[in-house]
Amino acid sequence: MPQKQYGAVNVNVDEEGFLTDFSQWTREVASAIAKDEGIAELTPAHWKVIEYMQKEFKEGGQVPSIRKLNKSGVISTKELYDLFPGGPAKKAAKIAGMKKPEGCV
Amino acid sequence: MEDKIKKVSIVISKGGLDGVYPGLIMANGARMEGIEANLFFTFFGLDAITTKRMGKIKIATVGNPGMHMPSLLGILPGFSAFATSMMLKTMDKIDIPPVPEFIEMVADAGCRLYACKATVDMFKLKKEDFAPQVDSIINVGKFYEISAGGQIIFT
User: What is the pTM for the complete model shown?
Assistant: First the structure.
């Protein structure tokens, strides 16, 4: 299984760089993945999205969709695209240490 | 590795749920991958952005072999409405929104929406008849201009 080093920690990842073991996720790992994805710094708005996604993921085992993020009042679709440019659902899931979203929407 | 697709322009030319959804899902999916996306609505596809009609789009139960049932059943009053409501419920569960919400979602995702000038003239429609997310009414020439450098998908 491929590994990736973020700072002092080694994490297991799949071939696209998504963490395969959520227990290895730390906030430092998140910041490092974000940098790789072109997000220089994770702001409180980013963290709000990440924390909500993780909560949903832990409860239901699913990565929440963009629609769900919008409907839950966590973040509007427009803001989400601004915060995670070039593929918000995928990028946010990767930074949050979750698997790649499987849905079509 | 092949070059990644950077831009798509999707034409939605058919009405009815099965005419409208594939293009919407593809456009939204493009934006989710960071691909630039344009949607061009023409002919009955225009229903999806016409304020009066966008919330009432149904699945055709007559003359639609994909429904896997005799067309005779489909002519029963209310059958199309029933089939549509069943389908919308199922889609909602997998987070595929109803058409008006979907139009808002793709627009918020950064997809640009256009109406076809020829159809607009034919149906005697005006810019005010369309959802606010619609950027403008354009002719085919302008569509090609906007689509330059990307892929064109006709649905």
Answer: 0.92
State the Cα–Cα distance between residues B76 and B78, nearest whole angstrom: 6
Per-residue pLDDT tens over the stretch A10-56: 999 999 999 999 999 999 999 999 999 999 999 999 999 999 999 99
The token duo for B99 is: 């058409």
Check CB contact under 8 Å for B108 and A81: yes
Instruction: Confirm if B143 and B40 have CB atoms less than 8 A apart.
Output: yes
Q: B25: nearest CA in chain A?
A: A105
CA atoms within 13 A on the CB side of B151: 13
Spell out a b/e string for B19-34, using b for 16 or more CB atoms within 10 Å of the CB, else e.
bbbebbbbbbbbbbeb
Asked whether residue A68 is domain-assigned, the answer is: yes
Tell me, what's the ipTM?
A: 0.90
Residue of A63, A72, A84, A104 best to disrupt the B interface, most CBs of B under 10 A? A104
List the structure tokens of B154.
């006709």
| Residue A34 placed within a domain | yes
Structural domain span for residue A50: 3-95
Is B7-154 a domain of CATH 3.40.1180.10? no
